[in-house]
Design brief:
The protein has 252 residues and is mainly beta. The chain has one helix and 21 strands. The chain has two domains: 120 residues, TolB, C-terminal domain (Neuraminidase, 6 Propeller); 105 residues, TolB, C-terminal domain (Neuraminidase, 6 Propeller). It comes from Anopheles sinensis (Mosquito).
Length: 252
């Protein structure tokens, strides 16, 4: 019989089942491409498109994040300054939030507290937070560091927020984490050529691609240890969402 343990800071064994709350087994991946969202069956079935992006969408990538509690996927199209949501099969597509400051497609979802975190402006250092239940309720978080935010991701199970800051060519990019209200900020590591982070729910590791080295790495913020899980990858923006969702699905 498999052992059931509550997820904690350490990597769990191969025969241990991580018993996370509200876990859903849907048997497919959701992949963002330059023209829309595709549903890819894990059993080898044929992928098919469930959402088509607007024709004037000029983003080279659109971030996808799921609301496990509500069974919906969220994404932003900065070309028309709108955040959308839809069910996992693409039906019931809705405008979740529309505002002139939606200038970036970077967002993440905390499905436990029911909030969407987003970067309004890729040149700024603020994070906007929107209530899923009532999008009219929102707040703005400010980092203590003078930098350009490039990516964010939430670990809902552990109540942590990760973000990357670009501080110029001399200092490069730094990865930070904090509580969900951005208190207790801590520098985790510095790197180059990385974006599109994803948290593995089973282990609490934050994973990210490194374009310059063609690798996919994972970092444990508790033990401060880093590991390479894939090498010699052909990385470009359209592949990363698929790669990250595949890795996350395999560990979750």
């Amino acid at each position: 019989m498999n052992q059931h343990l509550v997820c904690n800071a350490r990597t769990i064994g191969a025969q241990v089942v991580c018993n996370v709350g509200n876990r859903f087994e849907h048997g497919f991946l959701l992949v963002s491409t330059e023209d829309g969202i595709y549903r890819v069956p894990i059993d080898g079935g044929k992928p098919y498109q469930i959402v088509t992006y607007n024709n004037d969408n000029w983003d080279y990538e659109n971030y996808l994040y799921r609301d496990c509690a509500g069974g919906r996927v969220y994404w932003a199209e900065s070309s028309n300054q709108t955040i959308y949501s839809a069910k996992y099969d693409g039906t019931d597509k809705k405008v979740f939030f529309a505002n002139h400051d939606v200038q970036s497609s970077v967002l993440t979802v905390d499905w436990i507290s029911g909030r969407v975190y987003r970067i309004p402006d890729m040149l700024g250092s603020t994070i906007a937070v929107i209530s899923i239940e009532n999008p009219n309720v929102h707040a703005v978080l400010n980092t203590r560091h003078h930098c350009q935010l490039s990516d964010i991701v939430v670990d809902p199970l552990r109540g942590k927020l990760y973000w990357t800051c670009f501080k110029g060519l001399k200092e490069g990019t730094s990865l930070y984490w904090s509580n969900l209200d951005m208190s207790d900020e801590e520098l985790l590591l510095k790197f180059s050529g990385a974006s599109e982070m994803h948290v593995l729910m089973a282990t609490g590791e934050v994973c990210y691609p490194q374009y310059h080295h063609s690798t996919l790495k994972c970092f444990d913020p508790y033990s401060k240890q880093s590991r390479t899980i894939a090498e010699n990858l052909r990385l470009h923006p359209y592949d990363i969402t698929e790669t990250m969702y595949y890795v996350a699905s395999g560990d979750e």
